[in-house]
Write a structure and sequence with these properties.
The complex is a heterotrimer. In chain A, helix 2 packs antiparallel against helix 7, helix 4 runs parallel beside helix 6 and helix 5 runs antiparallel to helix 6. Chain A has a domain of about 170 residues. Chain A is mainly α. By secondary structure, chain B is of the alpha/beta class. Chain B has two domains: about 120 residues, Rossmann fold (3-Layer(aba) Sandwich), CATH 3.40.50; about 60 residues. In chain B, about 30% of the residues lie in helices and about 25% in strands. In chain B, the strands form two sheets. A five-stranded parallel β-sheet of chain B has the order 6-7-8-3-9, sandwiched between helices. Chain B is globular and about 45 Å long. Chain B starts with 5 loop residues before the first strand and ends with a strand. In chain C, helix 4 runs antiparallel to helix 9. The N terminus of chain C is likely disordered. Chain C has one domain. The two termini of chain C are about 25 Å apart. Chain C is mostly helical. The chains are: A mainly alpha, B alpha/beta, C mainly alpha. The interface between B and C is large, with 54 and 45 residues.
């Protein structure tokens, strides 16, 4: 089996150059899609029969929440690859993912709070999804905290990789237990959109935003990844050439 | 299975940005001692720990009896004894208790065996006191007692003669020579000379980067 | 193991044991037993330290009547939550001495080079740790519950729930403890890492205790708690061993 593509992906100079070439594609495409999605969601989609125009925040909230989980999964997979096969680039990817994922999580929490506030009358409710989102934020903060506390890069990579893998195993367990806990106490469940099925006009912009956020994540990841590789390989000989070009 | 001893091929290891082990290689047949020499910071401890498998070498491999040790690390570990700079003793336990718990994880040892070993290194008089009351030299003697009990083919010793008086250093030499006579191997990292017969010692000189 | 006889050939004479063969290698059970005995012995040589997490637990549960209200009817409502938060915090404090000393004096290094599976040894250490911290907490918890208005009949239920829950907490905590080895003043970081992972235990444990206090059947959440403990037993020592190896690199 031809593994050369795999070895190339593991090579920092190759990834550094590849990241630079790919960033504009992801960046511009995601920008266009975000514009399209926002137009579709804020302007074209009909108002929800129950929540009126207030539901439109879902076009930012749902993709953020979705991304917060997807980024954690990406981070854990990259970390596991780095741990098992000792590939430095994989660790660099995991390190780059964390702040992005934490930001998405924070955005999901903030938009969730904004969404619920008019209906709840308060700025926060212990809704199961928001609570799970909050715990996910703590998982991200723990990961970044562990990385920041270990000076040796290699050790920080490996220790935080174990943590990321442990975290991803726990995410379903945490989610299940929070949902179970919430069902006990019949707390107000929000974010239902009136009708059980979403009409196409509402759904399509949502899917567009989802795709757009994913591409946006990749674009930001590539930029951060280059910075991460640069800082790790600053003593290496290929850096001078790569930056000069 | 032919017994070939220990070998290292093309070991490269970085600590942070420092290239500590730069293509280190050696072979050590049974009955010989490898004296790893070099100034402070040249990587002696790193080499010993890399051979044990505590540190990961980016390239190269360690061979034990002709086989790569990474194929069966537990078997390799059960055949070696590593003693670092500080003997791994619990300060709240006595020397005797320390030996029992340290080596008991590897081998079933009777009380008389433990006491015999302590007697050999001159520790009988103070073997019941908590280790925190012992001097550095006494602690090292306890470590020597552990070595004599371990009965493993490979010894890895980091600065084995530190803190020992002349008699203690001679004891180290005697123990090493006994191990070599049994067909065992010793890897000793030290910047001093080893009190072992010259013809049994191979020297590996490490340089600072 | 065949290596040993191949090298030594004739069994070497040990001091005081002329003519006998080399001592038999220790089995995994032997090794676990010795880890347990050693840790227990060490803990009892420093008995003062053992009591500290329990005293902390007692103090924290005392805070609530003082801060909220001494009315037993009100306290009874929050008793399960108070009990579990206090137990969680006390467990966190106790985690400090799970691996710290062994990492410092080279014991962990010797464990990783012993030829015994490090995962197994980590499990042995964590179980011993639970015996020294979690089990006493489980026995103390009913006292705290009674002081918060729980009925006497709920005592056995509370002991079981806290006992099972603290097993899970010790195992989850061992992961963070292993990963933060060598980091100075890692207490807060350890808490930050362990708390999110412990939340399921808190949720089910508090619910089970609440049902026990009310006199209802608490089997369902207790089973989930036990499931978590079992999952912890199988997976946590793996992660802890990985963490220990990483700290030795």
């Amino acid at each position: 089996m031809n593994w050369t593509w795999f070895h190339r992906l593991a090579s920092p100079p190759y990834i550094f150059a590849l990241a630079r070439r790919l960033t504009p594609w992801f960046g511009w495409t995601s920008g266009l899609l975000i514009a399209a999605g926002l137009y579709g969601g804020l302007v074209l989609a009909p108002p929800d029969y129950q929540q009126g125009d207030g539901f439109r925040i879902i076009y930012v909230h749902a993709p953020s929440a979705w991304m917060s989980l997807m980024v954690y999964t990406t981070m854990a997979v990259a970390a596991a690859i780095g741990l098992i096969w000792r590939i430095k680039v994989a660790h660099a990817v995991a390190a780059s993912c964390a702040p992005i994922g934490a930001s998405f999580t924070f955005a999901a929490l903030a938009t969730g709070s904004l969404w619920g506030a008019p209906m709840w009358g308060t700025w926060w409710e212990w809704d199961p999804r928001l609570t799970s989102e909050l715990i996910l934020l703590f998982l991200y903060l723990g990961y970044m905290g562990l990385r920041g506390s270990i000076e040796d890069t290699q050790r920080a990579d490996r220790a935080s990789a174990v943590l990321a893998v442990v975290g991803i195993v726990n995410v379903p367990i945490i989610h299940y237990s929070v949902t179970w806990w919430n069902s006990l106490h019949q707390a107000p469940s929000v974010m239902r959109l009136g009708k059980p099925a979403m009409p196409v006009a509402m759904l399509v912009p949502l899917l567009i935003m989802l795709l757009a956020f994913t591409l946006f994540f990749v674009a930001v990841l590539l930029v951060r990844l280059r910075g991460e590789i640069l800082s790790r390989e600053r003593a290496a000989s290929w850096i001078g050439e790569a930056l000069g070009s | 299975m032919a017994y070939e001893g220990l070998g290292a091929e093309d070991l490269h290891l970085w600590r942070g940005e420092r290239h500590v082990l730069d293509g280190v290689a050696f072979t050590l047949p049974p009955g010989f001692c490898l004296h790893v020499a070099g100034a402070n910071g040249s990587g002696k401890t790193t080499l010993l720990r890399a051979v044990c498998g505590l540190l990961y070498a980016e390239t190269g491999r360690i061979l034990w009896n002709g086989r790569d040790v990474s194929e069966d690390l537990p078997a390799f570990h059960s055949g070696l004894m590593y003693i670092g700079h500080e003997p791994p003793l619990k300060s709240d336990l006595s020397a005797l208790e320390n030996l029992r718990y340290w080596l008991g994880v590897r081998r079933r040892l009777t009380h008389s065996l433990l006491e015999g070993a302590l007697q050999r290194v001159g520790a009988s008089a103070w073997s019941d006191r908590p280790v925190r009351t012992l001097s550095a030299g006494q602690k090292r003697r306890v470590a020597l007692a552990a070595l004599s009990l371990a009965l493993v083919p490979l010894w890895l010793l980091d600065e084995p003669t530190t803190n020992l008086d002349t008699a203690g250093q001679q004891l180290v030499g005697t123990l090493i020579e006994e191990q070599l006579a049994r067909g065992g191997l010793v890897l000793a990292a030290t910047h001093q000379d080893l009190p072992v017969a010259r013809e049994r010692v191979k020297r590996l000189e490490l340089a600072v980067e | 193991m065949s290596n040993v006889t191949a090298v030594t050939g004739e069994p070497a004479a040990l001091a005081g044991e002329e003519g006998r063969g080399p001592p038999a290698p220790a089995s995994m059970l032997d090794a676990a037993r010795l880890v347990l005995l050693r840790d227990l012995k060490l803990a009892f040589r420093r008995r003062g330290q053992l009591v500290q997490p329990l005293a902390f637990f007692a103090m924290v549960t005392t805070l609530f009547p003082l801060a909220v209200s001494p009315e037993l009817s009100r306290l009874r409502e929050v008793a399960p939550g108070v009990l579990w938060v206090a137990a969680l915090l006390a467990s966190l404090l106790a985690l400090e001495f799970l691996f710290r000393d062994d990492a410092h004096d080279g014991t962990l290094e010797q464990y990783s080079l012993s030829g015994q599976p490090l995962t197994w040894l980590m499990l042995a250490k964590t179980v011993t740790h639970w015996l020294l911290t979690g089990a006493p907490l489980a026995l103390m918890a009913p006292l705290a519950a009674l002081s918060l208005g729980a009925p006497g009949a709920s005592v056995p239920g509370i002991v079981i729930c806290v006992a099972v829950g603290t097993v899970a907490l010790s195992l989850i905590g061992s992961i963070g403890a292993a990963l933060t080895l060598g980091i100075r003043r890692s207490g807060v970081l350890l808490a930050l890492l362990t708390l999110p992972l412990s939340l399921p235990v808190l949720i089910f444990g508090a619910r089970a205790t609440e049902l026990a206090i009310r006199g209802s059947a608490y089997g369902a959440p207790l089973e989930l708690l036990a499931a978590m403990a079992i999952l912890g037993i199988t997976l946590a020592p793996l992660a802890a061993a990985a963490g220990v190896r990483i700290s030795l690199e």
